[in-house]
Backbone:
């Protein structure tokens, strides 16, 4: 079933693209334009694009202007998304975009938009404020991690030091793809094996570090592959083939590269962000203090690490045995066990 409604949408979106990315989004609704401009000024580029995409789908399914949207319309949207096979997480994300739109419209004009149809508030006499949200209750997704065998298999398939250095930065240094491809020569301090990550709308500036393996792979790439090529390009990672030769690598190019070698290695489940998931999980398991991990990986909220606290059974078993050995409860109690029963 198509995600779009059968009726011509009232709010029409125009999306402009350039050099492989969205450069502008406009609609015929001043209210929606105001909201998207606000998101663009205050949030990351990908967040702005995601909000625009989700709102476009909503107004395609519900052909009404914002001031005519009701809670019944939102329920109808959820039913249509269910029928289209969308997951609970996808539906919740799209509802969140709609909810954010109406929260802003309520601030602009409380009379025309008295309540948020997704997340209204009701106050009962003598009780706390109660919210009647349309969001689905979904189980928290546990990030997947790569096993040692998967990592060895994948790295064996990588043909260049450029690709190895990129993946090591995403795994060991826990960089996002967008951060890895934008590293410049002046961002690297060799004496500390550190990289300065510039600030964005979503994250503050921070410093990340490379281990000896990552630093050595990066040096091999620069010495043997990049050499003195493309002196006018200040980005570290560039393309060497095709029409993009000499241009900085893009996020899309790295994702395609990883999908290609994952399939070639017999690891179809592997995707680019999985390296960062694995790196963060390993830091948690090695008991690196959580504030230090958040600073390293660019997370603001203390709750941001909770999805990474999933620990494999073997690790939990090892930790339990070590804790019980230290506690030694048998020293507290004198129970009549034989040696074989203990």
Residues:
């Amino acid at each position: 079933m198509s995600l779009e409604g059968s009726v011509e949408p009232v709010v029409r979106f125009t999306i402009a693209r350039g050099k492989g990315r969205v450069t502008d989004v406009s609609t015929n609704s001043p209210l929606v334009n105001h909201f998207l401009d606000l998101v663009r000024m205050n949030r990351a580029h990908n967040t702005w694009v995601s909000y625009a995409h989700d709102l476009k789908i909503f107004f395609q399914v519900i052909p009404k202007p914002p001031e005519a949207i009701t809670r019944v319309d939102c329920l109808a949207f959820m039913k249509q998304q269910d029928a289209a096979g969308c997951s609970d997480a996808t539906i919740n994300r799209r509802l969140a975009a709609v909810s954010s739109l109406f929260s802003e419209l309520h601030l602009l004009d409380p009379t025309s938009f008295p309540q948020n149809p997704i997340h209204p508030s009701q106050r009962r006499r003598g009780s706390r404020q109660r919210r009647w949200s349309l969001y689905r209750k979904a189980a928290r997704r546990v990030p997947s991690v790569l096993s040692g065998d998967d990592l060895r298999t994948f790295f064996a398939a990588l043909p260049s030091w450029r690709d190895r250095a990129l993946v090591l930065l995403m795994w060991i240094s826990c960089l996002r793809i967008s951060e890895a491809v934008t590293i410049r020569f002046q961002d690297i301090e060799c004496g500390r094996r550190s990289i300065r990550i510039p600030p964005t709308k979503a994250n503050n500036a921070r410093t990340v570090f490379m281990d000896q393996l990552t630093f050595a792979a990066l040096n091999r790439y620069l010495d043997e592959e990049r050499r003195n090529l493309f002196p006018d390009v200040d980005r570290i990672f560039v393309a060497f083939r095709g029409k993009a030769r000499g241009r900085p690598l893009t996020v899309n190019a790295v994702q395609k590269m990883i999908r290609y070698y994952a399939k070639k290695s017999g690891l179809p489940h592997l995707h680019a962000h999985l390296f960062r998931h694995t790196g963060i999980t390993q830091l948690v398991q090695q008991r690196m203090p959580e504030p230090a991990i958040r600073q390293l990986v660019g997370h603001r909220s203390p709750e941001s690490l909770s999805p990474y606290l999933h620990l494999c059974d073997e690790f939990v078993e090892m930790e339990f045995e070590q804790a019980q050995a230290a506690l030694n409860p048998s020293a507290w109690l004198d129970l009549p066990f034989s040696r074989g029963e203990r």
